[in-house]
Amino acid sequence: MPRNRDEAELAKQTAQANQETQAFLDREARGLDPITGAPATGRPAVPWMRGNRETWILALIADYERHFQKTANAWFVLAAYDASSYLCDRVVQKDAMIWIDIGIRGIVRQLLAGGNPLPKRARQAMRKTLQDGALCLTVITCLPSTPGRKETSNAVSNAAKAHGVSDATVWNAWSAFQNKRKRSL
Fold it and tell me: pLDDT tens digits, residue range 99-127?
């Protein structure tokens, strides 16, 4: 019987810690200092992030949109939809998400009509773009939760393990993504 109480207490403490962490991340995403709640001073509260998690995810979604506009390939819509699920509040970013919603509707209509909107054979460049985007999304989602001095390195290693690729592959994808983002600013 005491074991069940200990597990229940642990579950309660874990839930509370998760809520506090999510509140921290939500305040930061809204441009507030996550500790004091005051407007941020222009610098990221989490020093290894240049911008916040929402900014990185929105940059990745914008990259998918550029590829979709060039190729009209539905895989980019699905990749953007997956990335958008990591946003704290999709409704706040509705202007950036409208193209995804329209693309999803088009995919669903084609499927319901008996068609297949997704090409069976993808070009090598498109597959690499989608894989690199998935790797970057994993790095982004690992960054805030990875403690220690080598946050980015740890996040890259975690992403490599999760996708079964080398650290170098993830570093290459992450560097290319950062360079694209810097050029677009």
Answer: 999 999 988 998 888 887 777 666 667 77
- Burial (CB count within 10 angstroms: exposed 0-12, middle 13-18, buried 19+), residue 174: buried
Task: Name the residue among 44, 54, 37 with its Cα closest to residue 96.
Answer: 54
Question: What is residue 53's predicted lDDT score, i.e. its pLDDT?
Answer: 74
Number of residues assigned to the chain? 185
How far is it, in rounded angstroms, from Cα 52 to Cα 43? 10
DSSP, collapsed to helix, strand or coil, labels residue 39 as strand
Strand, helix or coil for residue 30: coil
Residue 165 to residues 21, 29, 38, 78, 90, Cα–Cα distance (Å): 29, 30, 41, 22, 30
**Nearest in space to 52 (alpha carbons), one of 44, 60, 61, 64:** 44
pLDDT of residue 121: 65
Identify the CA nearest to 63 among candidates 153, 152, 137: 137
For the full predicted model, state whether its pTM sits above 0.70: no
Four-point Cα dihedral 156, 158, 162, 164, nearest 10: 60
Q: Closest by alpha carbon to 130, among 184, 80, 62?
A: 80
- Runs of H (alpha helix) within the chain: 2-29, 53-71, 74-84, 94-112, 124-142, 151-163, 167-184
